[in-house]
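Thread: Tetrahaem cytochrome domain-containing protein, structure

OP (GT): Posting the sequence first so everyone is looking at the same thing. Length is 157 residues per the record. Can we get the C-alpha coordinates written out before standup tomorrow? I want them in the notebook alongside the other entries.
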Amino acid sequence: MKFPLRFELNITMRVLIFLIFFLLFLACPLIARGTGPHNDIILNTNIRCSGCHQTLFLNEITPEFNDATDNICLSCHKREKTLFSHPVGVKARHLFSEEMPLSSDGRLMCITCHTFHSSFYMPILKKKVYLRRIVMEKNFCLRCHRQDLPDKIVVSY
Protein backbone atom coordinates (compact mmCIF):
# COMPACT_ATOMS: atom_id res chain seq x y z
CA MET A 1 0.00 0.00 0.00
CA LYS A 2 1.44 3.34 -1.03
CA PHE A 3 0.97 6.36 1.24
CA PRO A 4 0.34 9.80 -0.16
CA LEU A 5 3.36 12.11 -0.29
CA ARG A 6 1.73 14.50 2.17
CA PHE A 7 1.43 11.73 4.78
CA GLU A 8 5.11 10.73 4.33
CA LEU A 9 6.28 14.34 4.79
CA ASN A 10 4.11 14.65 7.87
CA ILE A 11 5.81 11.61 9.44
CA THR A 12 9.25 12.94 8.47
CA MET A 13 8.51 16.32 10.05
CA ARG A 14 7.25 14.66 13.24
CA VAL A 15 10.40 12.55 13.51
CA LEU A 16 12.59 15.59 12.83
CA ILE A 17 10.80 17.70 15.45
CA PHE A 18 11.05 14.86 17.95
CA LEU A 19 14.81 14.53 17.33
CA ILE A 20 15.37 18.28 17.73
CA PHE A 21 13.51 18.39 21.06
CA PHE A 22 15.24 15.22 22.23
CA LEU A 23 18.69 16.66 21.49
CA LEU A 24 17.80 19.96 23.17
CA PHE A 25 16.57 18.05 26.21
CA LEU A 26 19.90 16.21 26.41
CA ALA A 27 21.82 19.49 26.18
CA CYS A 28 19.91 21.22 29.01
CA PRO A 29 21.95 19.74 31.89
CA LEU A 30 25.18 20.78 30.18
CA ILE A 31 23.94 24.33 29.72
CA ALA A 32 22.62 24.48 33.31
CA ARG A 33 26.06 23.64 34.71
CA GLY A 34 27.15 27.16 33.83
CA THR A 35 30.05 28.71 32.04
CA GLY A 36 31.56 30.96 34.73
CA PRO A 37 35.27 30.86 35.55
CA HIS A 38 34.83 29.28 38.97
CA ASN A 39 32.83 26.17 38.06
CA ASP A 40 33.92 22.60 37.55
CA ILE A 41 33.65 22.72 33.77
CA ILE A 42 36.39 25.29 33.24
CA LEU A 43 38.64 24.79 36.25
CA ASN A 44 37.99 21.07 36.55
CA THR A 45 37.32 21.36 40.28
CA ASN A 46 34.60 20.00 42.53
CA ILE A 47 32.97 23.39 43.10
CA ARG A 48 29.24 23.20 42.55
CA CYS A 49 26.42 25.77 42.68
CA SER A 50 25.28 24.22 45.97
CA GLY A 51 28.67 25.03 47.48
CA CYS A 52 27.67 28.70 47.62
CA HIS A 53 23.91 28.72 47.14
CA GLN A 54 21.33 27.29 49.51
CA THR A 55 19.50 24.19 48.39
CA LEU A 56 15.90 23.21 48.93
CA PHE A 57 14.05 19.92 48.66
CA LEU A 58 15.43 17.70 45.86
CA ASN A 59 18.56 19.88 45.60
CA GLU A 60 16.77 22.83 44.04
CA ILE A 61 19.24 25.74 44.06
CA THR A 62 18.12 29.12 45.44
CA PRO A 63 19.67 32.55 44.80
CA GLU A 64 20.38 32.91 48.54
CA PHE A 65 23.89 32.10 49.73
CA ASN A 66 24.85 29.66 52.46
CA ASP A 67 27.32 30.73 55.14
CA ALA A 68 30.13 28.38 54.02
CA THR A 69 31.06 30.22 50.82
CA ASP A 70 34.30 31.60 52.32
CA ASN A 71 35.59 28.05 52.78
CA ILE A 72 35.25 27.47 49.04
CA CYS A 73 37.11 30.70 48.18
CA LEU A 74 39.87 30.04 50.71
CA SER A 75 40.45 26.53 49.39
CA CYS A 76 42.28 28.19 46.45
CA HIS A 77 42.87 31.82 47.42
CA LYS A 78 45.25 32.46 50.29
CA ARG A 79 44.28 34.79 53.10
CA GLU A 80 46.89 37.46 52.41
CA LYS A 81 47.34 40.52 54.57
CA THR A 82 47.56 43.39 52.12
CA LEU A 83 46.20 46.88 52.46
CA PHE A 84 43.01 46.25 50.51
CA SER A 85 42.32 42.57 51.18
CA HIS A 86 39.29 42.87 53.37
CA PRO A 87 38.79 40.48 56.30
CA VAL A 88 35.77 38.18 56.25
CA GLY A 89 33.62 37.19 59.19
CA VAL A 90 33.46 40.78 60.43
CA LYS A 91 30.04 41.97 61.63
CA ALA A 92 28.72 44.72 59.33
CA ARG A 93 28.06 48.02 61.07
CA HIS A 94 25.24 49.04 58.76
CA LEU A 95 22.83 47.50 56.29
CA PHE A 96 24.14 46.63 52.85
CA SER A 97 22.20 46.65 49.61
CA GLU A 98 20.80 43.32 48.45
CA GLU A 99 23.43 43.14 45.72
CA MET A 100 26.15 42.88 48.39
CA PRO A 101 25.04 39.86 50.47
CA LEU A 102 25.99 39.22 54.08
CA SER A 103 25.94 35.94 56.00
CA SER A 104 22.74 34.97 57.81
CA ASP A 105 24.05 36.65 60.98
CA GLY A 106 25.13 39.86 59.19
CA ARG A 107 28.83 39.19 58.67
CA LEU A 108 30.98 40.02 55.64
CA MET A 109 31.81 37.14 53.31
CA CYS A 110 34.04 36.96 50.25
CA ILE A 111 30.90 37.16 48.12
CA THR A 112 29.85 40.42 49.78
CA CYS A 113 32.24 42.20 47.41
CA HIS A 114 33.15 39.45 44.93
CA THR A 115 31.08 37.45 42.48
CA PHE A 116 31.89 34.28 40.56
CA HIS A 117 29.43 34.92 37.75
CA SER A 118 30.93 37.94 36.00
CA SER A 119 34.11 39.92 35.69
CA PHE A 120 35.55 43.05 34.17
CA TYR A 121 39.03 43.93 33.04
CA MET A 122 41.03 46.39 35.17
CA PRO A 123 43.80 47.95 33.06
CA ILE A 124 45.76 49.06 36.12
CA LEU A 125 46.02 45.43 37.29
CA LYS A 126 46.21 44.03 33.76
CA LYS A 127 43.74 41.29 34.61
CA LYS A 128 40.08 40.52 35.15
CA VAL A 129 38.59 41.03 38.58
CA TYR A 130 35.47 39.47 39.98
CA LEU A 131 33.98 42.34 41.96
CA ARG A 132 30.30 43.13 42.35
CA ARG A 133 30.93 46.80 41.63
CA ILE A 134 33.48 48.58 39.50
CA VAL A 135 36.39 49.87 41.55
CA MET A 136 37.15 53.51 40.84
CA GLU A 137 39.93 54.83 43.09
CA LYS A 138 38.68 54.82 46.69
CA ASN A 139 34.94 55.07 45.97
CA PHE A 140 34.49 51.32 46.40
CA CYS A 141 35.82 51.45 49.96
CA LEU A 142 33.96 54.65 50.81
CA ARG A 143 30.64 52.90 50.24
CA CYS A 144 31.17 51.44 53.71
CA HIS A 145 34.15 53.22 55.23
CA ARG A 146 33.80 56.95 55.82
CA GLN A 147 37.27 57.62 57.26
CA ASP A 148 39.87 59.31 55.10
CA LEU A 149 41.81 57.02 52.83
CA PRO A 150 45.02 57.92 51.00
CA ASP A 151 44.48 59.93 47.81
CA LYS A 152 46.24 57.32 45.73
CA ILE A 153 45.62 53.72 46.58
CA VAL A 154 47.22 50.53 45.37
CA VAL A 155 44.65 47.82 44.87
CA SER A 156 45.72 44.22 45.39
CA TYR A 157 43.42 41.32 44.46
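GT: Both are above now. Quick notes for whoever picks this up: The mean pLDDT is 69. The radius of gyration is 24 Å.
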